[in-house]
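Researcher: I'm preparing a figure for a lab meeting and need a structural model of a single chain. I don't have an experimental structure, so a prediction will have to do for now. The sequence is pasted below. Please return the structure as tokens so I can convert it later.
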Amino acid sequence: MTSDNGSQRPAWLKSHGPKWQASEPERVHDNPWFAVDRYEAIAPTGAPATYYLHDQKAWATGIVPLHEDGTVTLVGQWRFPFGTYSWELPEGGAPKREHPLDGAKRELAEEANLRASDWRKILVMHLSNSVTNEVAYCYLATGLSPRHDHAPDDTENLAVTRVPFRELLDAIAAGHITDSITVAAVLRVHHMAVNGELDPSLAQLVLG
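Model: Understood. Here is the structure written out token by token.
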């Protein structure tokens, strides 16, 4: 079996059983960032269910800014939902009328004051796929240079630092970094280094 990008898919990657069946949605909440729709549905088991779907109005984007010395730029900020401080990759939303890569380039400039000459899409994820249709696009950004013509969002008070990739990977393994895009994208870059998908000199720095 072959996927959309031409890679081979194992035989077990296939659908089983009937799909969900759903009525037309009733919009029960709407704001500039997301909406909530209610459906009367039939589950794959045949059981009736009322389903609430969080309809996200933007793509999520995350960037691994990997420098030539093997360090990664991170940003730190307080996150409202958990009331905790979070060190994470530069990331943010891109309106769905915009290509996710364009949004990622803007976020890298706004949050890390960086531009990149080379961009590579490394991961696409469905975030919390039981309740939301939010899709995250993660990119590896290399060939980095400073950029100072973007200002951060007026609600963001960001700290910026550079850390060795191996220290970042260890912090993720220890549970000190829990942001999902950061965890997944960093593990993906490590996977790329192991599998020979990175320039050998950069892979050596990643693998430590």
